[in-house]
Design brief:
Elements (H helix, E strand, L loop, with lengths): L1 H5 L15 H28 L3 H27 L21 H8 L15 E2 L4 E2 L5 E3 L4 E3 L4 E3 L4 E3 L4 H21 L1 H7 L6 H34 L3 H10 L11 H10 L23 H23 L10 H4 L14 H10 L2 H24 L2
Antiparallel strand pairs: 1-2, 3-4, 5-6
Length: 379
C-alpha cells in the first residue's frame, strides 16, 4: 500500500487537461458545502445547547469520522492508478508480437487467459500494442488499458480498475451513510428553521442542505446498491453491459468465487479491514482464475458431458411411436407429419427401425388391393 501511495505511476500529461477537473471541483464543493451546513447550523448549535448532550455528541463524532473516511477515499480514487498492462521490462508475456499466440502463453508460464477472440486469437490492444489480460479494456479518455476495468468516472477524473476499485466502493458506502445521516438527523433543525423569526440565510441554507442531501442520498444509495449486486456476482459494469447486450444469463460467470470470495476480490482478504481505506486485494490484476474455480468449472463441464452421454444412451422412445400412422385418419398424410418437429423425426430415423415396419405394412397392403381389382374385373 505504501508503494502505491508513494508513486502513483501516472504519466505527466494525465492532469494536463484542466477542464476535466470541473467535475472534481463540483463534487468537492458539494462535500464541503454539506459539511459546513450540517456542522454550523445543526450539529454544533445542538451540542452547545446541551438539551441532548449524549445524542448530539454521538452525531458529532460519527459524522466527522464518516466524512473524514469519505474524503480519504475520494482522494485515493483520484490519485491511485487503477492498474495497466505491465511493460515488456516487467513481463514480456504481454508484448504483442506476430507469433502463434497460444505458444507464447505456454512458453511464458503465465496463467492461461480465459477470454479469447472469436477467431481463437488472444485479445490485443491496437493502441497500446499489447496483449490484453482477462477483464482488461482500453480507456480512450485515460489513453491506456485498465486492468479489471469497471468504468471511467469523470467525477474522480480517473478510471475505476483493479487497484482503486475498493476505494471507489467505499466512497459510495461512506457517501450513502453521510447523506442519510444529514437527511434524518437534520430534519428537526429544518422544522425549527421554518419559524418566522429565523434569519433568512439560516432558513435557506438548512432547506438547501436538506434538499441536496436528500437528492444525493437517493442517487448514491441506488448506485451503491447496484455495485453491491455487481460485487456479489463478481462482475464489473462493463461485463454487466456486455451480458445485457448479449442477452445471456447474469448467473453464468467464470470469475464467480461465491459471495464471500467475491467480496474479498474487491475489499481484500482481511475481513476486519473491509470498511477501511487500506489493505486492497492482493495480486497483479492480470489473472482471476484460481484452482478452486478451475475445479468447479471442470466439474460442471463433466456433469454436462455425462448428461449428454446419458441422454444418447437412453433406450429410444420412438418405438412407442410406431403406431403413429393409426392416428392419422386420412390417406393424404405425409410420413412424419403427426405434430413432431424435424429434429424428432431425424432422431426416429437414426435410433429406431420403424422404417422397415412401415415399408412392410405398405407392401402387405398392395396385394389386397390387387386382389380386389381382379375380383371386380372378372364377370
Amino acid at each position: 500500500m505504501s508503494a502505491e501511495f508513494a508513486s502513483f505511476g501516472y504519466p505527466k500529461q494525465r492532469f494536463a487537461e484542466s477542464v476535466k477537473f470541473l467535475p472534481v471541483a463540483f463534487v468537492s464543493s458539494n462535500i464541503l458545502g454539506l459539511y459546513f451546513i450540517y456542522m454550523q447550523y445543526h450539529c454544533l448549535p445542538r451540542y452547545r445547547a446541551g438539551d441532548y448532550p449524549i445524542s448530539s455528541l454521538i452525531e458529532l463524532i460519527v459524522f466527522n469520522t464518516v466524512t473524514a473516511l469519505l474524503a480519504m477515499c475520494y482522494m485515493w480514487c483520484i490519485l491511485i492508478h487503477p492498474g495497466t498492462i505491465p511493460d515488456k521490462d516487467e513481463d514480456t508475456a504481454w508484448e504483442y508480437v506476430q507469433q502463434e499466440q497460444r505458444e507464447i502463453v505456454a512458453e511464458s508460464g503465465t496463467a492461461n487467459p480465459q477470454e479469447w477472440k472469436r477467431s481463437g486469437d488472444r485479445r490485443q490492444c491496437k493502441w497500446c500494442a499489447k496483449y490484453k489480460p482477462d477483464r482488461c479494456h482500453h480507456c480512450r479518455v485515460c489513453r491506456m488499458c485498465i486492468l479489471k476495468m469497471d468504468h471511467h468516472c469523470p467525477w474522480i477524473y480517473n478510471c475505476v480498475g483493479f487497484k482503486n476499485h475498493k476505494y471507489f466502493f467505499l466512497l459510495l458506502f461512506y457517501s450513502t451513510v453521510d447523506c442519510n445521516i444529514i437527511v434524518w438527523t437534520m430534519m428537526a433543525s429544518v422544522k425549527d428553521a421554518l419559524d418566522p423569526d429565523t434569519p433568512f440565510m439560516k432558513m435557506f441554507l438548512l432547506l438547501f442542505g436538506e434538499t441536496l442531501a436528500g437528492f444525493l442520498g437517493v442517487v448514491v444509495t441506488a448506485f451503491f446498491g447496484f455495485h453491491i449486486y455487481l460485487t456479489l456476482r463478481s462482475m464489473t459494469t462493463i461485463e454487466f453491459c456486455e451480458k445485457s447486450m448479449k442477452r445471456s444469463g447474469y448467473d453464468a460467470n467464470i470469475y464467480d468465487r461465491g459471495p464471500v470470495g467475491n467480496i474479498k476480490a474487491v475489499l481484500g482478504e482481511n475481513v476486519f479491514l473491509w470498511f477501511l481505506p487500506c489493505s486492497p486485494p492482493p495480486g497483479r490484476g492480470t489473472s482471476f482464475i484460481t484452482e478452486d474455480m478451475r475445479l468447479n468449472r471442470d466439474m460442471e463441464v463433466g456433469r454436462s458431458v455425462r448428461r449428454r452421454a446419458h441422454q444418447k444412451a437412453e433406450p429410444a422412445e420412438p418405438k412407442r411411436r410406431a403406431a403413429r400412422p393409426q392416428t392419422s385418419g386420412g390417406t393424404g398424410s405425409a410420413p412424419g407429419s403427426v405434430g413432431h418437429s424435424e429434429d424428432e423425426s431425424s432422431v426416429d430415423d437414426e435410433q429406431s427401425p420403424p422404417d422397415s415396419h412401415d415399408k412392410g405394412g405398405s407392401v402387405s397392403e398392395k396385394p389386397k388391393n390387387e386382389n380386389t381389382q381382379g375380383m371386380q374385373a372378372t364377370p
